[in-house]
Write a structure and sequence with these properties.
Elements: H1 2-7, H2 12-23, E1 46-54, E2 57-69, E3 72-85, E4 88-101, E5 106-115, E6 118-127, E7 130-137, E8 140-147, H3 158-163, E9 172-179, E10 184-200, E11 203-214, E12 217-223, E13 229-234, E14 238-243, H4 245-249, H5 261-264, E15 267-268, E16 281-287, E17 301-304, E18 307-311, H6 345-355, H7 361-375, E19 377-378, H8 387-393, E20 395-396, H9 398-411, E21 416-425, E22 428-438, E23 442-445, E24 459-463, E25 480-486
Helix pairs in contact: 6-9, 7-9, 8-9
């Protein structure tokens, strides 16, 4: 049982890596963004390759090409990651093609993620004041329109943009960034810190040191005068290095089995938590985090100074109502999203099939949790988790289980949301995702570990879909946990 549970844990970490190193969605608390016109331009086509490293070991590569044309530039980004996730080595590739104008403002893009039998694609086109999106997953195409208040950029164009600007050193500059994977429109800040010489191979070359800030995290890059990234260092031991194409694509010097990303990001504790499912209360001392960034207070958690107290919820069959719930206050927890396609016939039909004529919310939650737990294979999966894809493949990790459970619950008229945090297993806390449902109060449900309510070692930090999970980067390598009391 322990092995089966561990397989379902925490591919949240993969998304932190994917966003940080490759997709690079940068987010920060936004003052008004600065929009500047280019003062220089690229006149010749360029292509660069980088090795992607984790704690000194190569885990992949990425490349970017820039082609000037009459109207601006055509950019192409490609990447491949080879990751060890809880003992399984998996490969994931991304492809991004985008057109920008002469000021590097986005015109259109086409993004694709491929991993085993999982494929996700998003396309977008900018029309004045709007971004028109088309999302394709599991053979289904959905459309969405996002209102724009600022000229949008994609992160792939950010460094070439900075390289062609006369930006004031030492001053923070803000840009609107759209992420084609999470479909989120956010803000990044860039500071030109210094000009210095760095080693590239065995040569010292001049470089501009840039610092990008988002979610309280700093990523430091060294770029040359053409906007090429020579080197990049990110929290947790992740890095990019400029390399020749054959060297970038080679794994010859890396391990046959890469470092286990999930295990390396886990948080060990000195005192074991015995039989966590039988515990009703838990007290933990947390350090190494900024508490204002996280949702540490809730129905089951109370945080004071540096101590977090968790009590397992008490839930009974009397905590219920007749479904579907019709209450406008819960509209945001009942409505479909790009990743929770509750209005799709396949999701609605499966919810009806599972529940039949059941109208009791409490009993419906149990049935849905049991079905997802029993029917979805526990397997680490590199994907952009969405309910329709999971229903088709019937396999995945904590994110896949959670999005499918939430979509089925919402389709049945039960408010549901995703929460992300940590869960304890065999001496350490691992990054994990699970659900909360409304039964007169928010109650935790873990459809990977078959728990309702979830045990007290589920430590909640944030709420929200995949675009919020980058927040967990603030904790990786920084958070420390001490077990104070368990009963």
């Amino acid at each position: 049982m322990i092995l089966k549970q561990s397989i379902g844990l925490a591919v949240v970490v993969f998304w932190c890596v994917m966003n940080l190193l490759l997709i690079k969605r940068q987010v920060w608390a936004p003052p008004p963004p600065l929009f500047v016109s280019a003062t220089e331009s690229f006149t010749e086509a360029t292509q660069e390759w980088w090795g992607v490293y984790y704690q000194g070991e190569k885990i992949g590569f990425t490349s970017q090409s820039i082609e000037p044309n009459q109207n601006g530039y055509q950019l192409r980004d490609e990447s491949l990651l080879r990751l060890n996730l809880l003992g399984t080595t998996q490969r994931a590739s991304t492809r991004l093609a985008m057109a920008v104008d002469k000021e590097w403002v986005l015109k259109d893009f086409d993004f694709e993620l491929l991993s085993n039998d999982v494929r996700f694609q998003s396309r977008g086109k900018v029309i004045p004041g709007q971004l028109h999106l088309e999302i394709e997953s599991a053979g289904h195409i959905s459309k969405q329109i996002i209102a724009l208040t600022q000229p949008p950029y994609l992160a792939a164009a950010l460094k070439p943009l900075v390289a062609t600007q006369q930006l004031e050193p030492g001053k923070e500059h803000f840009f609107t960034i759209f992420d084609p994977a999470t479909l989120a429109d956010q803000i990044t800040s860039v500071v030109i810190e210094a000009r210095e010489h760095i080693l590239v191979g065995d040569q010292k070359v001049p470089a501009i040191r840039l610092r990008q800030r988002f979610k309280g995290i700093s990523v430091v890059s060294w770029v040359d005068g053409n906007g090429r990234t020579l080197k990049e260092e990110s929290p947790g031991g992740f890095a990019l290095r400029l390399e020749a194409p054959p060297q970038a694509k080679s794994f010859a010097d890396s391990r046959a089995v890469p470092l286990d990303l999930i295990a390396r990001a886990s948080i060990a504790v000195g005192e074991s938590i015995l039989q966590p499912q039988s515990r009703s209360k838990l007290r933990l001392r947390l350090s190494g985090l900024n508490v204002v960034d996280f949702a540490l207070h809730g129905e089951r958690q109370k945080f004071s100074e540096d101590v977090l107290r968790i009590e397992r919820e008490q839930v009974s069959p009397s905590d219920t109502y007749k479904i579907p719930l019709k209450d406008r206050r819960f509209g945001s927890f009942l409505n479909p999203t790009a990743f929770l396609q509750t209005d799709h016939p396949s999701i609605r039909d499966r919810a009806v099939e599972i529940l039949g004529t059941e109208t009791d919310a409490h009993r419906a939650v149990v049935r849905l949790k049991n079905w997802v737990y029993n029917e979805i294979e526990k397997q680490p999966t590199i994907s952009i988790p969405n309910a329709l894809q999971v229903l088709q493949t019937k396999k995945g990790d904590c994110n896949e289980h959670t999005v499918l459970f939430n979509a089925l619950a919402r389709a049945a008229g039960i408010p549901a949301k995703t929460v992300v945090g940590l869960v304890y297993l065999r001496g350490a806390f691992y990054y994990h995702a699970w659900s909360e449902v409304w039964l007169g109060k928010w109650i935790s449900v873990d459809s990977v570990l078959d728990q309702f309510p979830a045990d007290v070692t589920h430590v909640k930090f944030i709420e929200g879909e995949i675009d919020r999970q980058l927040d967990m980067l603030k904790l990786i390598g920084n958070l420390r946990i001490e077990v104070l009391e368990q009963e």
